[in-house]
Design a protein that fits this description.
The chain is mainly beta and 368 residues long. The chain has 1 helix and 32 strands. A 4-stranded mixed sheet has the order 3-4-5-6, with no helix packed on it. A hairpin with a 7-residue loop joins strand 30 and strand 31.
Length: 368
Amino acid sequence: MSTIKVDTVKNRSSAINLPNNFKIGGLSIIQGYTSSGSEPGSPSTGDFWWDSSNDKLYRYINSEFKQIAIAAATSIAWGGDRALVTSGSGVHIDYFDMTGTSNAADFGDLSGSSNSNDRGVSNTSRAIFTRNTSDSMDYVAIATPGNGTNFGNLIHTDRGQAPCSDGTYGVFGGGYGTINSSGGFQNSIFYVTIATPGNATDFGDRTVTGGYGSGAGNATRGLFFGVFTNTSPSTSNVIDYVTIASPGNATDFGDLSNPSGFNAAASDATRAVCATGLDSVASTIRNNIDYVTVANTGNATDFGDLTVAKEDSSACGNGTRIVFNGGSTGSNVNTVEYITVQTPGNATDLLDLTVACNRTTSCAGNAA
């Protein structure tokens, strides 16, 4: 056996080029890397493959690609791979696996007769939906398709709240009130304990009065994005926030890139994104997606674009991927598109809901 010892290899004027590479046991120490939606051909041992269709990493070992699991680092207490989407104008709930491409299937029905502009929050096992034109909330077990069961009653608002969750509490900010002798747009915030059916409790107030914004956050902080009201201009780019475990009034966080209502937001453990929807100041529906780092107050940054400009969609996520569900381009759509939340870029079409619908609501959790 021969032994070669090298302390230092230098080239004073440029990088050292070793055209034949180093090999150990006949194998190159340099591994290939491919990013594609399908398995690359003719790989070598040790090569990496990023499956861009499913956001998974593989390495070629023993003549096959083996997945390198990273799920534990991306799990969140308010989401999971199974997405639930209400149909907007009715009581129907769809569900699908956001890591796959199979179209949505029927999950069950909410208990009300009309659920336009309902809102939802979740932990990994339970989803709670508010019900339009009613002071009731329904809940379902995310892993078990079936109809909704009464959870408790709301306060002040029955539609258009901006919802967020840390997995323990569900918080709803603003909205439009027609119940409990409190009509018109609201700035009130209320909350529920997701695991314990019961009535909502007062939390505090938003910095603005209005509804039809969206919410997202992390395990500590909840953010409310944008607002729609009947004043002029009717949409605002405000972002405000609360500490979810500490009831109190909201604080200014920063601004979205444009005035925004009927928008859609979701988050992983550190970053929240918002598809900004209706901009009434510019009299247009936008396709842009903004993002913020939840722990750091400040204005939003451009993330990318949806496949089409739309409003009245909704969003949820699994800690890696966020899906935007349904909405209106002027006509209702049934499309679901997705982004990888830590990788800014444009959204990609994923699958279809069972019906074309706007004013959707989305929650996510575990399938088992």
